[in-house]
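Supplementary Methods, section 5.1.

A reviewer requested that the exact input to the structure prediction be made available. We therefore reproduce it here, unchanged from the version used in the analyses.
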Amino acid sequence: MTASTTKNDDVSGFAPIGGAGPVPFVVLTFAISWAIWLGGWAMAGRPATLANPGMSAAGYLGTFGPGIAAAVLSRRAGRAAAGAWAQGFLRWNIGWRATAVVALVLPLALLAATLLFQFTPKMPAGQAARASMAYVALFPVSVLLAVVAGLLGRGPLGEEGGWRGYLLPRLLARTDALAASAVIGVTWIAWQLPILVLFADARDGVSLAGYLAIGTPRLIAISYIATTVWRWSRGSLVACIWLQGMVLALSGMAFVPSGWVSGWNVASGLVPFTIVLCAVAAGLALIQKRRSGAY
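The structure derived from this sequence is encoded token-by-token as follows.
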């Protein structure tokens, strides 16, 4: 069932206006980002870590590839298409449902998972009684950090204008939300390949094959959550940037081996965090299935 035949009216009026299709966008995005990343890596002396200052700068600049590609293709399609694309960055009234997903559902789901998986915070000697404060602080701190990460973190500001602002509406014009999100998730992980191949610290020290096995469903889940937020906020890229900022903020706080202890034999927080994201995405899919009869 395509987007045009569902009962979803959250994005009526936000169909793509002109511009190239998904394939030219993906090709241009890869070309821009990979040129920046690989060129920066060569100019920085081929470092083995993203912590290298020159590579860190190139890594950040490369994340603007999707947004730049979207801006270029929208402008080439004419003033109306460019204006429609830019409007996504100006929709600050995102509605209570999108706000709830970002500010309540994600952090609370993660908090519940830390308890379910029996993760306990590492505390200095003699301060074990204060461990409960780490759980309490996880919620309000993550909400605040999400705003900072959305604006300054590696990814949200540069990517969302492309993934959600350009690619998503064009995919939704052809297929349903679940399929569109899967396409974006797979494209997203493939786009990161130069960084993942060159830098072990970009994949938390996990093998490339292991990271791809975990990271692909993780990004598909994030993409579906973002698709839901985009639809419920009536095409707001502000909401999507905030969402990705929340994911970045939470990924740096929860299940991190340096800050948490667990009986689970995990070298990083990738697996439990991916489980949480998939659970949230599945819950949102069921809600939308009940509401509209389509995912």
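Residues 88-292 form one domain. These observations are discussed further in the main text.
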